[in-house]
């Protein structure tokens, strides 16, 4: 597959790479510096990318595998990196052969590679030499084959039983004489404090957790495999189920990715409505996260106070889209339909309604010594550690790194809105609470500016290669009817190529790596779910914590199983 | 392009009140008492809905159970073009088409069977968007009870509109 390039040589970063004459370094159509190397040199290249001050790629965003059965070297491992200070983004592609699909692990360079590499092993069957714990992650232990390979039949079914559940090695290790009270407990997979199905195996010494390991994948729904058998637009309802607390943001992020590949843009009105509803979704997501955190540590009232505005926001979303939780409102090229007539009125009502509840919670807990005692210093992570683990979003900002994609790489006209990025310095559960509280207020600020400048006009592009023609025309005009039929039967013909688009999800950087082969269906979609990177650090955060702290940390990280397991 | 502005939200402990628990405790009590008294006397801002006696009023766009619309003579508007079946992300629609025996023109397609598996359906409304004849629309009905899986697969009889269209609880459909 060829990737269209803006310029074939003269990439500004190339000269800083070791032996760059032998590497292929290009600027890809989506603005990434794209380096193609073989596996013998990948670690050298990745290390240089991180360590050379001119390159300074301190955040590993994603590692994924892609399968090209027609190519001489069938598989490809793709790394996505970014530099927070320099702002550039780098993609490293490493082709590997089918007979020997091995790549050295990048875990020694960025810890973030841990789970992403496990996922690539699980779903694509690429081995990462030297990885400390290369087990299946999203599928069941007894699953056979690698589901995202092109020759894996999507209709295939397995019967998998509980008898084959995973038990970490250290559970069966003989007891240390000194730790005579050591015991193993399972938290989850179905536990009220896990807010979704995930399992934590923890070894306790008294009430202190000495070792822990997480198991995820209970909610794996083959999002990526399923996308490959559906058309580009049919993927939108699937994206709703990624982070179901803020489904609008996922759909918008996906639509932006496809629009970028098509070279189209949504009309101004659609962009502003997307901003408004995305920011409302962010408020809801933070409200659920904070409400749940507070419930977990015993402050139930706040949950009710936060759920009132959430209900009202859902009413607004339902009035626009027709669904409350899974909105399916974004379309490639705009929105499904225009907002209702009383949209502005409803938004202004919510702008007046929501702050009262945020203030109430603020008064109830922010200065409360019990709450502070439960969260301060609990689950603290330094900024360097957080970056190494690939954290983004409110959790990273709580560690003191002001990285927000709405400012770092503005999309949807975010560069025109005035807002501040809240940062804290301590990186603990309390800091995450404070950052989320302030982010809700900042989101309200953005909505206020957006609703003041809501432009008129259409909400979906009139490019009928991407968007369905308006219904009255379909009923009355032959040409529109033909477009309608072609779009539904053949799907949107996204030009061959690949693009990585990232938007600021409620939990952090939500990335879509989209690959098209020019036919009507996605060739490969890789989602970079923000909480996947965040959650991999969890078992390390737990070591030395008390069991009740484990719960306070888990809820403050805002793990959404739908997004984690896809 | 606006500059990146940050706001530090760190909150060091301050004051004697915070140190002794008391200030924040009374502040918190004041908040809950205010809510309690306001809900008790007058101001009806209790958010709880007494379901099922009281139900939330949904918008005209609510995506609920599907309706197959009919023409004035009671025949289905559906022409079995398979658009909804193709557009369905959940693959829950199954149509079997055949020639209409009562067709006035030379030949006309009708669905002899039109089944929606309501347990597979994700209620995204893509079928309504895809329909070029306004033959498939959605109602606001979202409370559905089935005792078996087979019961959830509904056919023409269950989906067809009953009586005049205005009397149905109309939800998501083109032009509202």
Word description of this protein:
- The complex is a heterodimer of chains A (566) and B (176).
- Chain A has 566 residues and is of the alpha+beta class.
- Chain A has helices at residues 42-51, 113-124, 169-172, 223-228, 236-239, 247-262, 268-296, 300-321, 343-366, 369-375, 383-388, 393-397, 405-408, 429-452, 471-476, 478-490, 530-535, 538-542, 547-557, 561-565; strands spanning 5-7, 24-28, 33-36, 59-67, 75-82, 89-96, 102-104, 127-129, 182-187, 199-205, 208-215, 330-331, 334-335, 420-423, 497-504, 509-516, 522-528.
- Chain A contains 20 helices and 17 strands.
- In chain A, the strands form 5 sheets. Chain A has a 6-stranded mixed beta sheet with strand order 1-2-3-6-5-4. In chain A, strands 9-10-11 form a 3-stranded antiparallel beta sheet. Chain A has a 3-stranded antiparallel beta sheet with strand order 15-16-17.
- In chain A, a hairpin with a 4-residue loop joins strand 2 (24-28) and strand 3 (33-36).
- In chain A, helix 7 runs antiparallel to helix 8 (300-321), helix 7 runs antiparallel to helix 19 and helix 9 (343-366) runs antiparallel to helix 14 (429-452).
- A 3-stranded antiparallel beta sheet of chain B has the order 3-4-6. In chain B, strands 2-5 form a two-stranded antiparallel sheet.
- The interface between A and B is large, with 67 and 51 residues.
